[in-house]
């Protein structure tokens, strides 16, 4: 598989124009993506930050930075801390606010081509609802309801730990989100992520994305104090991939049992084609890539190409052929 990583963007364009090229397109809750690779929320800005480095139009979708009704300055102090096989972040949902996003950033995102998924967060239910009302009338393709951010003191993950609380929020947003599909982003820190998932499905979620980062921390041994002002941060990167993969596998089974059939978007430590293929085999309809983009901005392009090469080598025509869940 090492040669997968060396394919260029020009090869991708050539393959995409070929009649014999595998079909990588996926449909997530009615939104068609040209391929199953999505830039994860909080790791890709508004696309402009990477536009001079890579061909952003090749991506299947872009999840925006976490958006709140009013702008936020984010957390103080250290925000990023590298750890073994991973990354700790405590950004704190820094953003310009939903009205400013719709006016200034969304037109550029739409120009890029990939599906636009707005990651919606808030401190309390009414803030989520008001934000959803604005996004519902915008040109985004989908809302990703963030009930799983571990590095804010109010809101975020607090909504995603208890099935009842999660269901109440999803229901409230669902009532005003009439024009856009609603994907709910789940936390691995929940006592029972499957119970939260089922509650969200029952409340009207059209898709699930998982997992968000694990609650974690670091201590500065020189200064003898926690690294982050917020104490806790979110752990992402290769270290979490086997756990995230297992959660996707188990949750797919739960979704299958409930006969809802809603799509799952897998997230967690995806750093190359092999990782993405594992998630697709485990039951994900698509994947989001985050931390890996920081160390290698071309990661997502390499993953798209790797999936295509794998499908060609194994004589697979459609992306759904990769899954192994129906073969057991």
Protein architecture, described:
With 328 residues, the chain is of the alpha/beta class. It has one domain (2-327): Aldolase class I (TIM Barrel), CATH 3.20.20.70. The chain contains 9 helices and 16 strands. The strands form 4 sheets. It has an 8-stranded parallel beta barrel, surrounded by 6 helices. It is globular. The two termini are 25 Å apart.
Q: Notable features of this structure?
A:
328 residues; alpha/beta; 8-stranded parallel beta barrel; 9 helices; globular
What is the secondary structure topology, with strand pairs?
Layout: H1 9-16, E1 26-28, E2 31-33, E3 37-39, E4 61-63, E5 80-83, E6 86-89, H2 98-112, E7 115-120, H3 125-136, E8 142-146, H4 163-176, E9 182-185, H5 193-203, E10 207-210, E11 214-216, E12 219-220, E13 225-226, E14 233-236, H6 241-257, E15 264-267, H7 273-282, E16 286-289, H8 292-295, H9 299-313
Parallel strand pairs: 3-4, 3-16, 4-7, 7-8, 8-9, 9-10, 10-15, 15-16
Antiparallel strand pairs: 1-2, 5-6, 6-14, 11-14, 12-13
Helix pairs in contact: 3-4, 4-5, 5-6, 6-7, 7-9
Put the structure in a nutshell:
The chain is an alpha/beta fold and 328 residues long.
Number of helical runs? 9
What is the residue-averaged pLDDT? Answer: 90
Q: In sequence order, what are the helices and strands, one letter per element?
A: HEEEEEEHEHEHEHEEEEEHEHEHH
Q: Would you state the CATH class?
A: Alpha Beta
Helix content: 25-40%
N-to-C span:
25 Å
Assess the beta-strand content as a share of residues.
15-25%
Shape: globular
- Determine Rg (CA atoms, Å): 19 Å
Describe the main β-sheet briefly.
Answer: 8 strands, parallel, barrel
CATH architecture: Alpha-Beta Barrel
Q: Quick one: how many beta strands?
A: 16
CATH homology superfamily: Aldolase class I
């Amino acid at each position: 598989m090492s040669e997968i990583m060396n394919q260029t963007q020009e090869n991708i364009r050539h393959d995409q124009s070929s009649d014999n090229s595998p079909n990588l397109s996926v449909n997530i809750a009615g939104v068609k993506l040209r391929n199953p690779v999505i830039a994860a929320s909080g790791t890709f800005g508004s696309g402009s930050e990477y536009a001079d480095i890579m061909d952003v139009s090749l991506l299947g979708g872009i999840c925006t930075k976490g958006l709140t009704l009013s702008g936020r300055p984010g957390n103080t102090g250290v925000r990023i801390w590298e750890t073994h096989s991973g990354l700790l972040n405590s950004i704190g949902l820094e953003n310009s606010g939903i009205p400013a996003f719709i006016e200034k950033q969304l037109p550029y995102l739409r120009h890029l081509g990939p599906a636009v998924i707005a990651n919606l967060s808030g401190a309390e239910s009414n803030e989520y609802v008001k934000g959803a009302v604005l996004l519902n009338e915008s040109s985004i393709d989908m809302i990703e309801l963030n009930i799983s951010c571990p590095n804010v003191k109010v809101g975020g993950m607090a909504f995603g730990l208890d099935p009842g609380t999660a269901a109440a929020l999803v229901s409230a947003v669902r009532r005003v989100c009439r024009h856009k599909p609603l994907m709910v982003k789940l936390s691995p820190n929940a006592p029972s992520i499957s119970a939260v998932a089922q509650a969200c499905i029952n409340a009207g979620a059209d898709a699930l994305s998982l997992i968000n980062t694990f609650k974690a921390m670091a201590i500065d041994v020189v200064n003898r104090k926690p690294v982050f002002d917020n104490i806790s941060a979110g752990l992402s990167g290769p270290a979490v991939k086997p756990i995230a993969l297992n959660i996707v596998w188990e949750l797919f089974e739960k979704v299958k049992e409930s006969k809802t059939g809603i799509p799952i978007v897998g997230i967690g430590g995806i750093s190359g084609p092999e990782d993405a293929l594992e998630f697709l085999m485990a039951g994900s309809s698509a994947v989001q890539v985050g931390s890996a983009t920081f160390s290698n901005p071309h990661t997502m392009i390499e993953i798209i190409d790797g999936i295509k090469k794998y499908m060609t080598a194994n004589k697979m025509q459609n992306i759904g052929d990769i899954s192994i869940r129906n073969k057991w």
